Structures are given as structure tokens and as C-alpha cells.
């Protein structure tokens, strides 16, 4: 277990009548510094949008590991320097199956897969969500590589929101049609998002799926250019703002 | 019943196949003269796979060529003079000597395993990638040349089970407008979904699409917008999806690739596009402003958010293309003989971004279908209607 100021390992057995359904009743607007692991745990499940109906019923125990850490980040475009080194709560969930609305596809979080949400310890808001499946895939693009490609649509993550999202991660990922249940890795960020044609930055979920089945069969295009999809979902109203296969790591640097 | 008989004979087949030396059936010892080469061998079938016989041979060719320029090379596979398959292209800079090329050549065969197959291979060169696998067109353009020195060839059999007839790469019915500087293309396309190969039982990847686009001759830079019916990839659920898409190759740098599928959206979404229903007509357009690299796609007049592809700055492309295409497996090309896929209002934009009708009346225009090795060479039909400024495409032999 990682060293940290506080840590807590929780196994929620028979969650059907227990903790999860209770924490999702918390007000998502409840923002403020996180002072202990159980609060981090509750806040994490809240922002993730997990409740009992969103887990596959065949799993009867979910493990949740909670740590206070300094978040290492080298890949979040535009915000890497702001996020890197930030005091955060790391809430890692495993031994679960995350049920999506569409296509009867699940996100399998059975070990060794895991899903981690990092919360800003100062205000409790989500900084980053990371799902890792059991499969290894090529490296993430660096922040610099991503910024270059996101510049194509004049996108920018201009900062971290100061207010909680109005929709959960679960709501956001259910907007993603191509196809979250098949992703080998999902990286989500809650950011202030701006595109050239929008006058103001707005809170948005960035859901970046990697290791998907190739989205087109073109043989003239490198596979790693065809296995990503990124969705930008307005975190206030759930409207999809943008989708495409950008970014991806540069082939030349590998 | 047929399968039961086959199973009864299976031990016999295995005995026969066990005596086949696939590697040495290639005429080992080397072939050193120019021209067409023939050898016999027994394709080693996966005998558990009598539903869908398919082999995927990896062939090795050792080539020498002392001429001075660069060309695409491709290898045609012939059975009794009929081309039954061709390889993916490979690009070589001449002169070269004893270059070893590994190529997968897919082929199908009958279930009569006790007969040897006589295949002929010819190495071709051409300077235009669109003529790969297309002998008629290449010949008429005097771009087809047999390679002077094909040293030897052998085959390693790696039969795989597939429940569809697998074909190599993509096959197209296309019309290409060749103008020195093209900055956009558009058309109204009638949505006409066919079946994907093995649609009722297979999870193998398959795709069929119709599009309008602009591109360079090497396919290293292109825009494309159209609709698609697609099934995912092996190992994943067999989701069949129909959607509209657009894509761009060459973004900030060469070969970078953007792909945007549009479907399933809520109407409030920025990218909402109504799903192209079978039988409906929709307009598709792509525009590249080569002054600033601004790329615009629009669907039924709905302009999608523009993006900026720096690679397109001062890089106009010479070709506009209207095409139907299948990829990966033998699926239906869009349209049938009684209900063809109509591509009307075929226009392109010149270097001033001015819209011009294609009309298909220039000697440099190029119309054709790429061959399919398994069935009739002309399985797909494309007709250009100069008066109506339209293209008609259909598949002569649709899946039941």
C-alpha cells in the first residue's frame, strides 16, 4: 500500500443494501476540502455516479482502496503543470463490473483491472479518472503531443472547475457510443473546456478511450491512430460538444 | 449431408495433405527469367473449416530490378489466365537487387483437395496507386510492366478459419476526376445498405461504405465523407453499426489521421446528425481551403465545426473521388441491380473554391472497379451518366 497521510482499505460486502446506495444520495454540490478517507470514498462514488443498479449483480463485493497522495501527471493536455504534484485523494475501485446503459456492454474492473478517481483534496472535485483493463497498450500521448492535436479544433482545457459537475462520470460515459465497454483504457478529466466557437469556457467531462477496436479499416493509417475516441461532454447539461479520435502518441518518437 | 460426407472423407484428405510439401511446390531452384511464373501446390486447408474454405498464404518473392525510378509493385495471382487475387502494393526505389518481399496473398479454393492447383504469379509495376490490381486500366495507361528478374518464389501455408470469404484489402467502384488543383467535392448519395459478409452468424470485421472525397495519388493526403455499415473486429461483440462519417489524412504533419463517426446522437448535441436511413438521399461535401488549412465538412447543408489541418496549407490535391467500397470481407457493395446506389450532383471545387460539375467527360477522368478474385471479375458495376452528372453503382451478386 502506498504511503500517505491517511489510507483506508474498504471492502463493501453485499453492497446491495449498504454503503453505495447511501453515498449517492449525498448532494453532488457538496463541495469542500476532503478531510478523511471515508469522505473521499463517498465523494468519489458520487462523482463517478456509481450506485447499485450500475454494477453487475453477479459481483457481490467491491474493493475500494483510498489513499492521500501527490498526483503525478505528465499527460493531461494544457493542465499538466496544474495537476502534477497536487495533493489528492486516490480512490481505487476493483473487483466490480460497471454496467453501461447501451449495447449491454460492461466495463470490467475485475483484477488486475482497476478504476481510479483522483480528487482534489482542497476542494474535493474530481481531477482525473483512470480505468486500466488487464490489457497492455501503447503509451499515452504526452501533454505536448495532445495539445498539438487538440489545437486542430482550437480546443483548450483552460483550467479546473470550481464547481461540481452536474452530471456524473457514468452519465458522461453513457454518451459515448464508440464503444466504452471495449476500451482497454479510459482516461477522464473534469475541466473547464473552451473551443474557438464558444464564447466562454464551460465545465466538461473529457472521456478519452484508448485501445478500442479500430474505428476504420484503413490499412494506410497507423493502427494507433485508429484505436482512440475522445468525447467532450458538457458537465452541466450532458450535451456532447465534440468527438474524434484525437489525440494519439506520435509514431516518430517511439 | 454434404458436410457429413466430407467428415467421412476427412481422414483421407488429411492423409493426402500430409504428403503435400507446400514449400517445395513453388518451383524451388529459382526462376530467373522475366514474365509469368507458374507453380503447383496443394493449398493446405483447415479441414475443420469446410463451411468457409480459405487460405492465407505468405509468399516470398525475391526481386531484382535495375531500372531507375520508383514504382509500386504488386503481384497478381492467376488461375488459368484469370486473376484470382492480388497482393497489397509495396513501394520500392529502383534500382534494387535481391530484395526479398513477403506478401500475404489470400485465395479461396474448391473442396476438391486431391487436385493440385496451378497458379501463376506475375509481378507488376505501376506508378499510380489506383491501378494496383487493375490490369485493364493499367494496361491502357501503359503503366504495367513485368519485372525483369523474379528470382524465386515459395509459399508457406498458413490457413486460417474464417466464416466469410476473406478478401485482401479494399475493393472499390470508383470515379476519379483528375484536375491539377482540387479543393473540394460534393454529391447527393442515396443510402443503400447491403449485407455484410456472414451478417447472420459472423463476428469477423466487415465494412461497406460510399463516399465523396478529395485526395492525392498516393493516398497520403485525403478528405472523405460518406456513410458506412460496419461490423467490429474479431474478439469483440458483433455489433453492426450504420453511420455517417468523415475523415482526414494529413493534419499537422503527414499521415496524421482524423476520423469522426456520427450517429446515435441526442438532437441537442453539437454533432447531431440524423442517421442515414436506407433509401434516403443526403448531400455530402468536403472543402479544403489551402490558404489556411481550414477544413469543412457538411452533411445535408449542416456545416460541421471546421478544423485546421496545417498539412493542407498550399497543398491542393489533384483528385476528386466518388466511390463505393468494401473492406476486409466479401460484403455487398452498395446498391443492387434493381435498386442501385445513385450518386448525383457530383461536383468538385477548383483551386478558387468554385463549384464545378464533374460531368465525367474529360480524357483524364478515370472510372473503374477493382477486381474480386473469387467470383466474376466484374462483380461490381459503375456507370457514369454524363448528362445527369451522376454515377450509378451496384453489386451484381448480392448476398441473400
List the helices and strands and how they pair.
The complex is a heterodimer of chains A (254) and B (400).
Chain A: E1 7-13, H1 19-23, H2 37-48, E2 61-70, H3 80-83, E3 87-94, E4 97-99, E5 106-108, E6 114-120, E7 126-132, H4 143-150, E8 155-159, H5 169-173, E9 185-195, E10 202-210, E11 229-234, E12 240-244
Antiparallel strand pairs in A: 1-2, 2-3, 3-6, 4-5, 6-7, 7-9, 8-9, 9-10, 10-11, 11-12
Chain B: H1 2-18, E1 37-41, E2 55-65, E3 70-79, E4 82-86, E5 90-93, E6 96-107, E7 117-126, H2 135-140, E8 145-146, E9 149-157, E10 166-182, E11 184-190, E12 206-215, E13 222-231, E14 240-249, E15 257-262, E16 281-289, E17 294-299, E18 302-303, E19 307-308, E20 317-329, E21 341-349, E22 355-357, E23 366-369, E24 380-385, E25 390-395
Q: Outline the low-pLDDT stretches of chain B.
A: 1-58, 106-117, 137-163, 372-377
Helicity of chain A, in percent? 10-25%
Structural class of chain B: mainly beta
User: Which oligomerization state do the chains in this entry correspond to?
Assistant: heterodimer
Based on CA inertia axes, which overall geometry of chain B fits? Answer: globular
The largest sheet of chain B is: 9 strands, antiparallel
What is the overall pLDDT average of chain B?
A: 68
Average pLDDT score of chain A:
83
User: Which percent range describes the beta-strand content of chain A?
Assistant: 25-35%
Query: What's the total helix number of chain A?
Result: 5
Head-to-tail CA distance between termini of chain A: 32 Å
> What about the largest sheet of chain A?
10 strands, antiparallel
Amino acid at each position: 500500500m502506498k504511503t500517505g497521510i491517511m489510507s483506508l482499505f474498504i471492502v463493501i460486502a453485499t453492497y446491495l443494501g449498504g454503503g453505495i446506495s447511501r453515498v449517492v444520495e449525498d448532494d453532488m454540490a457538496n463541495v469542500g476540502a476532503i478531510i478523511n478517507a471515508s469522505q473521499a470514498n463517498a465523494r468519489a462514488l458520487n462523482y463517478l455516479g456509481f450506485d447499485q443498479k450500475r454494477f453487475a449483480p453477479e459481483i457481490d463485493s467491491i474493493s475500494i482502496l483510498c489513499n492521500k497522495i501527490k498526483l503525478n501527471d505528465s499527460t493531461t493536455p494544457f493542465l499538466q503543470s496544474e495537476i502534477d504534484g497536487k495533493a489528492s485523494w486516490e480512490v481505487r475501485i476493483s473487483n466490480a463490473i460497471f454496467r453501461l446503459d447501451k449495447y449491454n456492454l460492461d466495463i470490467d474492473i475485475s483484477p488486475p483491472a482497476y478504476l481510479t478517481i483522483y480528487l482534489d483534496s482542497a476542494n474535493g472535485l474530481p481531477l482525473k479518472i483512470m480505468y486500466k483493463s488487464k490489457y497492455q497498450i501503447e503509451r499515452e500521448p504526452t501533454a505536448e503531443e495532445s495539445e498539438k492535436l487538440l489545437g486542430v479544433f482550437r480546443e483548450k482545457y483552460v483550467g479546473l472547475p470550481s464547481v461540481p459537475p452536474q452530471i456524473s462520470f457514468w452519465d458522461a460515459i453513457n454518451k459515448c457510443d464508440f464503444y466504452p465497454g471495449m476500451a482497454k483504457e479510459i482516461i477522464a478529466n473534469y475541466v473547464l473546456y473552451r473551443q474557438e466557437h464558444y464564447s466562454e469556457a464551460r465545465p466538461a467531462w473529457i472521456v478519452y478511450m484508448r485501445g478500442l477496436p479500430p474505428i476504420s479499416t484503413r490499412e494506410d493509417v497507423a493502427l494507433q491512430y485508429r484505436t482512440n475516441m475522445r468525447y467532450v461532454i458538457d458537465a452541466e447539461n450532458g450535451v456532447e460538444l465534440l468527438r474524434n479520435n484525437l489525440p494519439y502518441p506520435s509514431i516518430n518518437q517511439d | 449431408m454434404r458436410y457429413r460426407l466430407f467428415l467421412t472423407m476427412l481422414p483421407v484428405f488429411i492423409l493426402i495433405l500430409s504428403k503435400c510439401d507446400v514449400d517445395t511446390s513453388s518451383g524451388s531452384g529459382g526462376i530467373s527469367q522475366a514474365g509469368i511464373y507458374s507453380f503447383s501446390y496443394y493449398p493446405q486447408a483447415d479441414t475443420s473449416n469446410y463451411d468457409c474454405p480459405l487460405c492465407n498464404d505468405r509468399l516470398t518473392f525475391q526481386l531484382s530490378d535495375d531500372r531507375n525510378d520508383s514504382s509500386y509493385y504488386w503481384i497478381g495471382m492467376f488461375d488459368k489466365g484469370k486473376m484470382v487475387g492480388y497482393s497489397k502494393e509495396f513501394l520500392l526505389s529502383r534500382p534494387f537487387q535481391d530484395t526479398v518481399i513477403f506478401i500475404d496473398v489470400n485465395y479461396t479454393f474448391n473442396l476438391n483437395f486431391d487436385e493440385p492447383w496451378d497458379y501463376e504469379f506475375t509481378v507488376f509495376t505501376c506508378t499510380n496507386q489506383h491501378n494496383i490490381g487493375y490490369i485493364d486500366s493499367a494496361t491502357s495507361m501503359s503503366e504495367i510492366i513485368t519485372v525483369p528478374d523474379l528470382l524465386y518464389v515459395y509459399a508457406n501455408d498458413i490457413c486460417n478459419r474464417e466464416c466469410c470469404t476473406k478478401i485482401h484489402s479494399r475493393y472499390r467502384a470508383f470515379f476519379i476526376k483528375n484536375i491539377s488543383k482540387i479543393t473540394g467535392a460534393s454529391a447527393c448519395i442515396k443510402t443503400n445498405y447491403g449485407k455484410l459478409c456472414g451478417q447472420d452468424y459472423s463476428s469477423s470485421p466487415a465494412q461497406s461504405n460510399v463516399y465523396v472525397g478529395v485526395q492525392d495519388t498516393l493516398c497520403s493526403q485525403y478528405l472523405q465523407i460518406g456513410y458506412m455499415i460496419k461490423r467490429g473486429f474479431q474478439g469483440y461483440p458483433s455489433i453492426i453499426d450504420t453511420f455517417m462519417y468523415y475523415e482526414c489524412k494529413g493534419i499537422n504533419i503527414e499521415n496524421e489521421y482524423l476520423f469522426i463517426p456520427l450517429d446515435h446522437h441526442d438532437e441537442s448535441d453539437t454533432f447531431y446528425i440524423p442517421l442515414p436511413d436506407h433509401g434516403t438521399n443526403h448531400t455530402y461535401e468536403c472543402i479544403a481551403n489551402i490558404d489556411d488549412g481550414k477544413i469543412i465538412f457538411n452533411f445535408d447543408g449542416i456545416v460541421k465545426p471546421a478544423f485546421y489541418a496545417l498539412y493542407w496549407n498550399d497543398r491542393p490535391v489533384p483528385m476528386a473521388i466518388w466511390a463505393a467500397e468494401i473492406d476486409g470481407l466479401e460484403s455487398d457493395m452498395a446498391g443492387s441491380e434493381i435498386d442501385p446506389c445513385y450518386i448525383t450532383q457530383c461536383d468538385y471545387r477548383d483551386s478558387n473554391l468554385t463549384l464545378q460539375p464533374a460531368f465525367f467527360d474529360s480524357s483524364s477522368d478515370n472510372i473503374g472497379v477493382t477486381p474480386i478474385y473469387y467470383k466474376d471479375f466484374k462483380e461490381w458495376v459503375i456507370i457514369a451518366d454524363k448528362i445527369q452528372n451522376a454515377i450509378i453503382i451496384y453489386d451484381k451478386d448480392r448476398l441473400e
